Amino acid sequence: MDEITLHQPPTRPWGSPNLSPFCAKLECYLRMAEIPYTLSRFGRGESPKGKMPYIKIGGAVLGDSQLIIEDLERRLAAEGKHPLDEGLSARDAAIGRIVRRTLEEATYFVGMYARWKTNDGYAIQRAEFKKWIPGIIIPLIRRDITKKLHHQGTGRHSFEEASAMGADDYAAIAEILGDKPFLLGDKPRTVDAALFAFVDGTLGYPLDSPLKQGVARHANLVAYRKRIRDRWWTDLPALP
Ligand SMILES: N[C@@H](CCC(=O)N[C@@H](CS)C(=O)NCC(=O)O)C(=O)O
To answer: Whose CB among 12, 53, 165, 227 lies 3.0–4.6 Å from 8's, allowing a Cys bridge?
Structure first.
């Protein structure tokens, strides 16, 4: 495998891998798949999709966490190594896809609401973002995200309504996880990188919200997060 540089925000806030769940997902995948990488700063101008994360590999710049993971899975297979989703049944692949898309295309916006639209969340965001971007643009980011939340739809609900929808997503995922070590069985699959990033990003965020309480209610999701942190994130503070 060519050398990989992973470009993402430079901080590990609140004892978590990253403030962006998509960055936490991709970095977790790299660790689970045992693919070496080095970290570098995020530059919007060079990001192929204008979003974080992106990687450089063998002279190419690739964007979108999922497109990158799928590319790396193909490279692992081509090298005779073991992609995380090797041997996955069609049914499990379908379940993994639906869970991931629910998290990324629906639950994600509830987290954004908690972080950017509520005043308590915004105070936390402002303090963290100030560490790596000019403070003057942070209110503009808030305005932009609030507008996006409105257009996407989640922002039109009360925080309680939106949080209940997010909590119900996690309840459904907790049901699928059951007492298995990973979402689809005994081995980590690509979907686990995404699920870990979202569960960890919700439980680790320093704001007590109905969304966070919704995740914390599920002992299996709490244990899942710890199991993955204990194995792949020993450089972060250990969880009790
Ligand atoms: N589908 C993309 C989503 C990435 C994404 O939305 N990243 C957010 C941070 S969590 C971002 O870069 N936002 C900045 C923007 O939209 O301008 C992926 O999987 O990489």
So the answer is: 53
Q: Which atom of ligand 1 is nearest to the CA of 51?
A: 12
CATH topology for 90-232 is Glutathione S-transferase Yfyf (Class Pi); Chain A, domain 2 (1.20.1050)
Is 90-232 in the same CATH topology as 4-78?
no
The rounded distance, in Å, linking the Cα atoms of 190 and 32 is: 9
Please give the model's pTM, rounded to 2 decimal places: 0.97
Any idea what DSSP says for residue 175? Answer: H
CA angle in degrees (0–180, nearest 5) for 21-24-30: 140
Q: Atom 11 (ligand 1): residue with closest C-alpha? A: 51
Q: Say yes or no: domain 4-78 is CATH 3.30.420.340.
A: no
Decide the pairing of beta strands 38-40 and 4-7: parallel
Residue ranges lining ligand 1, Cβ < 6 Å: 20-22, 51-52, 64-66
For ligand 1, atom 12, name the residue with the nearest CA: 51
Name which residue sits closest to atom 9 of ligand 1, judged by CA.
20
Report domain extents, the chain: 4-78, 90-232
Which residue out of 6, 8, 22 has the highest number of ligand 1 atoms within 8 Å of its CB and is therefore the one to mutate?
A: 22
- For residue 44, is pLDDT > 90? no
Each residue of 208-237: pLDDT tens digit?
Answer: 999 999 999 999 999 999 999 999 999 999
Give per-residue pLDDT as tens, 167-201. 999 999 999 999 999 999 999 999 999 999 999 99
